[in-house]
Design brief:
Chains A, B: The active site is at residues 129, 242. Chains A, B: Catalyzes the NADPH-dependent formation of L-aspartate-semialdehyde (L-ASA) by the reductive dephosphorylation of L-aspartyl-4-phosphate. Chains A, B: Keywords: Amino-acid biosynthesis, Diaminopimelate biosynthesis, Lysine biosynthesis, Methionine biosynthesis, NADP, Oxidoreductase, Threonine biosynthesis. The structure is a homodimer of 337-residue chains. Chain A has 337 residues and is α/β, with parallel strands linked by helices. Chain A is built from eight helices and 15 strands. Chain A has helices at 14-25, 75-87, 129-144, 163-177, 209-222, 256-264, 283-286, 317-334; strands at residues 4-9, 30-37, 45-48, 51-57, 68-71, 91-94, 123-125, 147-155, 196-197, 228-232, 234-235, 241-250, 269-271, 292-299, 306-314. In chain A, the strands form three sheets. The first copy, chain A, has a seven-stranded mixed sheet, sandwiched between helices. A six-stranded mixed sheet of chain A has the order 10-8-12-15-14-13. In chain A, strands 9-11 form a two-stranded antiparallel sheet. In chain A, helix 1 (14-25) packs across helix 8 and helix 3 (129-144) crosses helix 8 (317-334). Chains A and B meet through strand 8, helix 4, strand 9, strand 10 and strand 12 of A and strand 8, helix 4, strand 9, strand 10 and strand 12 of B.
Chain lengths: 337, 337
C-alpha cells in the first residue's frame, strides 16, 4: 500500500494536535510525518504512533518532498507558505480563511461537494467550522427539496479561537469561582459565565466576519450562489463543540418524518432525538465525535414551509481537523493528489 | 403618602429576594412587608429596610389584610393560594405560568400593555422571563411598522430555574475544574461548560413549554393573536441574564437607523452598540440592570424586509421581579388596586 509524506503546519495548535491524533486513529497511510510550526512554537517534541517527533520551524526546505500539507496556522502563515509548498509539489489542505473564496480553489465538505476536489490546483480550502457543521446537515435536506432561506443562531465554543482560548476560559472560570476578576488575553471580554456576539470585525452592514463566512462559504460549498442565509454568531462558555439553532424555509412543506429519515441516513450526521427524556444534541456529547449531531426537528409553527432543527458538532474535529483529513483521504482514494 | 401592605410569596427564592431588594431600592410605599414561603422554606429571617423579618409559612390567615401579594413560588403554590389572597382583598401579581393564558387575567409588560391592568379581577400575571425581554424590544418596532414574523433563538441562564440551579452551575463548574464528574440535581444534564435545549417538556409538535410560552404570551401581551413566531430555547452556562438572537420580518423594509432611533428612545430599553470595539449586549453587563440591552441591529441580508438584532436582559430583574414591581407601581399610580 502506498504511503504519503505528510506535513502538519501549525502542529502545536488545537487543530494541529487533533490532525495528528486523527492520522493515527484512522490509520492514514503516513510514510513520513513532518511537524511544522512558526519559529515561536517550534522546538518541542510531540508524539505520533509511538514515536517522538520534533516540531520544526516552517521554511521552504522543510516544505520540500511532501505529498500533503495539512495547514492550520492561521491566514498569514498560509498565505506565505501554502504557495511555497504547492510549488514544491505538495497538495495543501488549508484550514485558514486565506483562500476559501478564491475562484479555482475548491472549498470542500466531503459529504457535500467532494467532486469539487477533482480540479484543484494544489490548494484546497477547508471551510469555516460553523459552516461545515451547518452544510453537513442542511445539504441532504436541500437535495430532497430546495432550501429557500436559512436563519441560524450559533453557540460557538472557545476552541474556535484555539487552544489558548480554551485555557483562557478555564482560567477565567477559576478566577470567578475564587471571587477574582476574570482576566482577558485572547477574547476582548470575559467568556466565563458570559457570552457575546462573535468578536470578529463587523462590516458596514453590521455582519461580523464569522457570519459572512457562513453566508459566502455555504453558497460556494452547496453550489447555491444566491442562497439566502442570515446568521447571528455568538461565543459561549463551552470548551469545544459548536451548536446551532437553524430555521429553514422551503418552497413547500417539508414533513418532519421525511427530514428525520433523511438525516438518519445521511453520512456524517447522527440523529439524536429522545423526546420523552428531552435528550437532544449537547456539546459535551458531540465533543470527540466524528458525526454532527442533529435533533429537535420540527415543523416551524410560524411558516407553513419551515423546519426548525438543532445541531451540535465537534468544532476541532468535524469543524476542522477531521474535515481536512477526510479531504486528504478522498484525494488518495480518487488518485487526485 | 399612602402606604401598602405587601406580601411576598416565595420570599426565599431568587425572584423573591430580588423583589425584596427592588421594593427597598425603588422606595416602594411599603407599610407592612410580610415574607411568606412554603412550610419547607419558612423559618429563616431576611433583611428589609434595616429590619430583620421572619419568613412565615403561607396560610389563609397570613394572606389576610394585604393590599398586594407578589407571588413567585411556582404554579402549584399560586394555584392554591392566589385565589385565597384575592378573596381576602389583595391583588396578586403572579410570576408563575398558572394564570397567564386565562381569559380575563391581564398578562402585562408595563412598557407594552399597561392598559390591560385596568380591568383586572384580582390576579395579574407576570409573563415568562424570555417573553418579557423580547416584547419590551420588539413592541416599539411593531408600533412603527407591523411585524409579520419572528424567529428567535435564546441563550437562557441558570437563574431561570431558580437560585438552586445557579448553585448547581457553580458546583458543577468547580467539579469539572477539579476533574470530577459534574453531578446533577436540578437540571437533567450538566450545564457547566455545556448547553442544551430548554428542558421543559415538548409537545407533539416538538415545541417545548418554554417555546410555547414565548409564542402564546407574546401574542397576548402585544394583542396580536395571529403573530407568527418560532423559538428555539436553549439553556447556557450563564448565571443570571438571558440573551436572544432575534430575526424580524416586516411587510416592508425597516431602515436600521429608524430601528436604532426607536429603540434608543424606548422605555426599558438601552441601545448598546459600539461597532468599532465589537461591544454589544452581554449577560455580565445586563445583570443587575433594569433595562433590556439591545444591539447588533442590522438589515437581514436574507430578506428584504428583515431585521436581525441581539438582546440581553436580567432574567431575575426585568424578566421577573422588576416587571412585577412595576406592575404594582402602575396599579398604585392609576389607583387601580
Amino acid at each position: 500500500m502506498a504511503t504519503y509524506r505528510v506535513g502538519i503546519l501549525g502542529a502545536t495548535g488545537a487543530v494541529g494536535a487533533e490532525i495528528r491524533q486523527l492520522l493515527a486513529e484512522r490509520q492514514f497511510p503516513v510514510g513520513e510525518l513532518r511537524l511544522l510550526a512558526s519559529p515561536r512554537s517550534a522546538g518541542q517534541t510531540l508524539a505520533f504512533a509511538g514515536e517522538s517527533l520534533p516540531v520544526r520551524p516552517v521554511s521552504a526546505s522543510e516544505l520540500q518532498n511532501l505529498d500533503i500539507v495539512l495547514a492550520s496556522a492561521g491566514g498569514s502563515v498560509s498565505r506565505e507558505w501554502a504557495p511555497v509548498a504547492v510549488q514544491q509539489g505538495a497538495v495543501v489542505i488549508d484550514n485558514s480563511s486565506a483562500f476559501r473564496l478564491e475562484p479555482g480553489v475548491p472549498l470542500v465538505v466531503p459529504e457535500v461537494n467532494p467532486q469539487a476536489l477533482q480540479n484543484h490546483r494544489g490548494i484546497i480550502a477547508n471551510p469555516n467550522c460553523t459552516t461545515i457543521l451547518l452544510c453537513v446537515v442542511i445539504y441532504p435536506l436541500h437535495q430532497a427539496q430546495s432550501i429557500q432561506r436559512v436563519v441560524v443562531a450559533t453557540y460557538q465554543s472557545a476552541s474556535g479561537a484555539g487552544a489558548r482560548a480554551m485555557q483562557e476560559l478555564l482560567r477565567q472560570t477559576q478566577q470567578i469561582l475564587e471571587n477574582q476578576p476574570a482576566t482577558t488575553e485572547i477574547f476582548p471580554y470575559p467568556l466565563a459565565f458570559n457570552l457575546f456576539p462573535h468578536n470578529s470585525p463587523c462590516n458596514d452592514q453590521g455582519y461580523c466576519q464569522e457570519e459572512l463566512k457562513m453566508i459566502q462559504e455555504s453558497r460556494k460549498i452547496m453550489g447555491l450562489p444566491a442562497l439566502r442565509l442570515t446568521a447571528t454568531c455568538v461565543r459561549v462558555p463551552v470548551l469545544r463543540a459548536h451548536s446551532e439553532a437553524v430555521n429553514l424555509e422551503f418552497s413547500q412543506p417539508f414533513p418532519v418524518a421525511k427530514a428525520q429519515e433523511i438525516l438518519g441516513n445521511s453520512p456524517g450526521v447522527e440523529l439524536v432525538e429522545n423526546w420523552q427524556n428531552n435528550y437532544f444534541p449537547m456539546p459535551i456529547h458531540a465533543s470527540g465525535k466524528d458525526a454532527v449531531l442533529v435533533g429537535r426537528i420540527r415543523q416551524d409553527l410560524s411558516h407553513p414551509c419551515g423546519l426548525d432543527l438543532w445541531l451540535c458538532g465537534d468544532q476541532i474535529r468535524k469543524g476542522a481537523a477531521l474535515n481536512a483529513v477526510q479531504i486528504a483521504e478522498y484525494l488518495i482514494q480518487k488518485n487526485w493528489l
